[in-house]
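Purpose: get a first structural picture of the assembly so the mutagenesis plan has something to point at.
Setup: four entries, given in the order below. No constraints added.
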Amino acid sequence: MLKELDPLLHSQLRLAIVSLLVGVKEAEFTYLKEQTNATAGNLSVQIQKLKEAGYIEIEKKFKDNYPQTICKITTTGIKAFEQYVEVIQNYLKPKK
Amino acid sequence: MLKELDPLLHSQLRLAIVSLLVGVKEAEFTYLKEQTNATAGNLSVQIQKLKEAGYIEIEKKFKDNYPQTICKITTTGIKAFEQYVEVIQNYLKPKK
DNA sequence: TTATTATGGTTTATAAAATAAACTACTTTA
DNA sequence: TAAAGTAGTTTATTTTATAAACCATAATAA
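Result (structure tokens, whole complex):
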């Protein structure tokens, strides 16, 4: 009946990050921070976890002398997200 | 943009419990345990939290000499669930 | 009739997660 | 050149989730 929810995605912040990335395909650290209202520290930790899971890629470079961190969703990440959406729908539409 | 997800419902087990209760209006502890595959300890803790939040009511009685714990959703619980569903939909349908 | 196992839980301890606070490194501005 | 700002990371603390241990009673078996 009710399947497991991918614990990596069942976290408000990580779900928001992935949701944003699925939409735009690429985003800066600062953009994600603004959009999610997360603290930098929390965001830093969570994108690392998503990277370790292979759900996103992180590229570090410099822009106008400042460090810049770019995040992109991977195909693995997209699949995991789609799967998560499917599974959680069963929790959201209880059968009468 | 992305609203907060009610932390009381953004928990796999508590969400499953509430989802089940919204469907049936009343359920036994053992039924919830079976349906969710939770351990009794975890289930016991989580229904207490839902009760403290006013999302469910817990009634304890005896049935065939054995203790029996019945859980029912409250109107507060139904509203919280509906609100949660609305909010999380925004995470699940990323805007292109 | 007294161990033994089963039922239906609760309480306590441990592991894992999320979050915040502190820190690093460098840049810009006053 | 000191202070403040940018863009993060690391570490510490708090909160959650989970598991393990426990409790009380009932049914069953020896």
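DSSP finds four helices and three strands in chain A.
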